[in-house]
Amino acid sequence: SQQGEEDPQALSIQEGENATMNCSYKTSINNLQWYRQNSGRGLVHLILIRSNEREKHSGRLRVTLDTSKKSSSLLITASRAADTASYFCATEWGAQKLVFGQGTRLTINP
Amino acid sequence: SQTIHQWPATLVQPVGSPLSLECTVEGTSNPNLYWYRQAAGRGLQLLFYSVGIGQISSEVPQNLSASRPQDRQFILSSKKLLLSDSGFYLCAWSVWWDRTSRNEKLFFGSGTQLSVL
User: Contact at 8 Å (CB) between A76 and A61?
Assistant: First the structure.
């Protein structure tokens, strides 16, 4: 069964605004990862946050993790049209396997 | 540098026909290899993964099979395709076993869009 669930399923904002996506998961984790997928393409790893970390930054990305609530959020600041994509959270399921959520489809309007 | 090749990019097959999708990885040794399927607008479902030559683990019962004849080659097959086999198939690799280098992430191919008609 799916481990992570993203919210919202779809998000449409104006260029320059911030975009926030949330992910909830069910069981304890070692780490949580976020990936990006452009339409019709493979996924690209964005950032990994470990269970003992609360916040992590990478460029315009900010990821938070709340293990007590079993949730994570991905914030993209100062969005650009090129950020239009689907974003997935993923957690380790068993040994060396990743389970992905359903994704958030982000649309940045110029 | 490491690269992953997945082909074909698009495939249209009739119901009942066989299938063979191939994935190869370059620039790394002993990778973990994965096959995922993605329904339109949905998340990814893990189908198979392999930690070594000839070692295949199936995650869901289905009409498909996988093989790993060489260290960096992963093949997804079916003897007779079903309509429900349609989807976007993604191959991925990792060196997850090497946790000291913090390689706990997947690198994906560009995918194959399979339409079974």
Answer: yes
